UniProtKB/TrEMBL annotation:
This is Hsp20/alpha crystallin family protein. It comes from Janthinobacterium lividum. InterPro entries: A-crystallin/Hsp20_dom, HSP20-like_chaperone, Small_HSP. Residues 38-150 form the SHSP domain. Belongs to the small heat shock protein (HSP20) family.
Length: 150
Protein backbone atom coordinates (compact mmCIF):
# COMPACT_ATOMS: atom_id res chain seq x y z
CA UNK A 1 0.00 0.00 0.00
CA UNK A 2 1.39 3.35 -0.96
CA UNK A 3 0.85 6.45 1.13
CA UNK A 4 -0.42 9.33 -0.91
CA UNK A 5 -0.58 12.95 0.16
CA UNK A 6 -3.80 14.57 -0.95
CA UNK A 7 -4.24 18.31 -0.69
CA UNK A 8 -7.73 19.40 0.27
CA UNK A 9 -9.18 22.83 0.68
CA UNK A 10 -10.67 22.88 4.20
CA UNK A 11 -12.86 25.89 3.38
CA UNK A 12 -14.44 24.34 0.30
CA UNK A 13 -17.05 21.71 1.33
CA UNK A 14 -16.78 19.93 -2.03
CA UNK A 15 -13.02 19.78 -1.63
CA UNK A 16 -13.49 17.90 1.65
CA UNK A 17 -15.99 15.45 0.21
CA UNK A 18 -14.23 12.35 -1.11
CA UNK A 19 -16.47 9.28 -1.10
CA UNK A 20 -13.57 6.98 -1.98
CA UNK A 21 -11.07 8.18 0.60
CA UNK A 22 -11.81 5.34 3.00
CA UNK A 23 -12.29 2.62 0.36
CA UNK A 24 -8.84 1.12 0.92
CA UNK A 25 -9.44 0.87 4.67
CA UNK A 26 -12.85 -0.70 4.11
CA UNK A 27 -11.37 -3.31 1.75
CA UNK A 28 -8.63 -4.16 4.22
CA UNK A 29 -10.83 -4.26 7.33
CA UNK A 30 -14.03 -5.76 5.96
CA UNK A 31 -13.65 -7.68 2.71
CA UNK A 32 -10.16 -9.19 2.80
CA UNK A 33 -10.60 -11.16 6.09
CA UNK A 34 -13.82 -12.66 4.72
CA UNK A 35 -12.08 -13.74 1.51
CA UNK A 36 -9.15 -15.22 3.45
CA UNK A 37 -11.49 -17.15 5.77
CA UNK A 38 -13.26 -18.65 2.76
CA UNK A 39 -9.99 -20.10 1.41
CA UNK A 40 -8.68 -21.32 4.76
CA UNK A 41 -11.68 -23.48 5.64
CA UNK A 42 -12.69 -26.86 4.32
CA UNK A 43 -14.32 -25.31 1.25
CA UNK A 44 -11.39 -25.90 -1.08
CA UNK A 45 -9.59 -29.13 -1.82
CA UNK A 46 -5.86 -28.50 -2.12
CA UNK A 47 -3.74 -30.82 -4.25
CA UNK A 48 -0.07 -31.49 -5.00
CA UNK A 49 0.97 -33.41 -8.11
CA UNK A 50 4.44 -34.91 -8.55
CA UNK A 51 5.66 -36.74 -11.64
CA UNK A 52 8.18 -39.52 -12.12
CA UNK A 53 9.05 -41.26 -15.39
CA UNK A 54 6.52 -44.01 -14.61
CA UNK A 55 3.69 -42.33 -12.72
CA UNK A 56 1.97 -39.28 -11.26
CA UNK A 57 1.73 -39.00 -7.48
CA UNK A 58 -1.18 -36.92 -6.21
CA UNK A 59 -1.84 -35.74 -2.66
CA UNK A 60 -5.22 -34.11 -1.99
CA UNK A 61 -6.10 -32.59 1.39
CA UNK A 62 -9.66 -33.64 2.22
CA UNK A 63 -9.95 -33.44 6.02
CA UNK A 64 -13.10 -34.46 7.85
CA UNK A 65 -14.38 -36.80 5.13
CA UNK A 66 -15.05 -40.53 5.35
CA UNK A 67 -13.18 -42.55 2.73
CA UNK A 68 -16.53 -44.02 1.62
CA UNK A 69 -17.62 -40.49 0.62
CA UNK A 70 -14.66 -39.94 -1.75
CA UNK A 71 -14.94 -40.75 -5.47
CA UNK A 72 -12.04 -40.74 -7.93
CA UNK A 73 -12.61 -41.14 -11.65
CA UNK A 74 -10.05 -41.41 -14.45
CA UNK A 75 -10.84 -40.78 -18.09
CA UNK A 76 -7.68 -40.90 -20.22
CA UNK A 77 -5.56 -38.08 -18.87
CA UNK A 78 -8.36 -36.35 -16.89
CA UNK A 79 -8.61 -37.12 -13.17
CA UNK A 80 -11.62 -36.03 -11.11
CA UNK A 81 -11.94 -36.17 -7.33
CA UNK A 82 -15.18 -35.50 -5.47
CA UNK A 83 -15.94 -35.76 -1.76
CA UNK A 84 -19.11 -35.38 0.29
CA UNK A 85 -18.48 -33.34 3.44
CA UNK A 86 -20.57 -34.18 6.49
CA UNK A 87 -18.83 -32.48 9.39
CA UNK A 88 -20.38 -31.57 12.73
CA UNK A 89 -18.72 -29.89 15.71
CA UNK A 90 -20.84 -29.23 18.76
CA UNK A 91 -19.66 -27.52 21.93
CA UNK A 92 -21.73 -27.98 25.10
CA UNK A 93 -21.45 -26.28 28.45
CA UNK A 94 -21.48 -28.32 31.69
CA UNK A 95 -25.30 -28.54 31.85
CA UNK A 96 -25.72 -30.01 28.38
CA UNK A 97 -26.92 -26.80 26.73
CA UNK A 98 -25.48 -26.27 23.23
CA UNK A 99 -23.49 -23.05 23.20
CA UNK A 100 -22.11 -23.39 19.69
CA UNK A 101 -22.79 -25.64 16.73
CA UNK A 102 -20.78 -25.53 13.52
CA UNK A 103 -22.03 -27.77 10.74
CA UNK A 104 -20.54 -28.08 7.32
CA UNK A 105 -22.20 -30.05 4.57
CA UNK A 106 -21.49 -29.97 0.90
CA UNK A 107 -19.58 -31.27 -2.07
CA UNK A 108 -15.93 -30.69 -2.84
CA UNK A 109 -14.75 -31.27 -6.40
CA UNK A 110 -11.45 -31.00 -8.28
CA UNK A 111 -10.60 -32.05 -11.79
CA UNK A 112 -7.30 -31.74 -13.60
CA UNK A 113 -5.68 -32.88 -16.84
CA UNK A 114 -2.29 -34.59 -16.88
CA UNK A 115 0.19 -34.55 -19.74
CA UNK A 116 0.06 -38.35 -20.21
CA UNK A 117 -2.84 -40.79 -20.10
CA UNK A 118 -3.24 -42.81 -16.90
CA UNK A 119 -3.24 -46.61 -16.80
CA UNK A 120 -6.54 -47.07 -14.93
CA UNK A 121 -5.83 -50.77 -14.21
CA UNK A 122 -2.68 -49.96 -12.23
CA UNK A 123 -3.98 -46.85 -10.43
CA UNK A 124 -4.15 -46.99 -6.63
CA UNK A 125 -5.76 -44.75 -4.00
CA UNK A 126 -5.34 -44.55 -0.21
CA UNK A 127 -6.83 -42.19 2.36
CA UNK A 128 -4.69 -41.51 5.43
CA UNK A 129 -5.14 -38.81 8.09
CA UNK A 130 -7.29 -36.57 5.89
CA UNK A 131 -5.04 -36.87 2.83
CA UNK A 132 -6.00 -38.77 -0.34
CA UNK A 133 -2.93 -40.35 -1.94
CA UNK A 134 -3.16 -41.38 -5.59
CA UNK A 135 -0.54 -43.41 -7.47
CA UNK A 136 -1.40 -43.00 -11.16
CA UNK A 137 0.90 -44.95 -13.51
CA UNK A 138 1.36 -43.57 -16.99
CA UNK A 139 -0.08 -45.62 -19.83
CA UNK A 140 2.58 -47.20 -22.01
CA UNK A 141 2.97 -45.77 -25.48
CA UNK A 142 1.40 -42.39 -24.78
CA UNK A 143 4.64 -40.47 -24.98
CA UNK A 144 4.03 -39.76 -28.63
CA UNK A 145 6.57 -40.12 -31.34
CA UNK A 146 8.69 -37.78 -33.33
CA UNK A 147 8.32 -37.81 -37.08
CA UNK A 148 11.34 -37.83 -39.34
CA UNK A 149 11.22 -35.03 -41.89
CA UNK A 150 11.90 -36.21 -45.44
Amino acid sequence: MANHLIQRDALNPLGRFDPFSDMEDMMRDFLLPALRARDVGNGRMRIDIAETEQAYLVQADIPGVNKEDIKVSIDGNRVSISAELKNERVTRDGGGKVVRSEREYGQQYRSFVLQHEVDEAGAQARYENGVLLLDLPKKEGTGGRQLAIQ
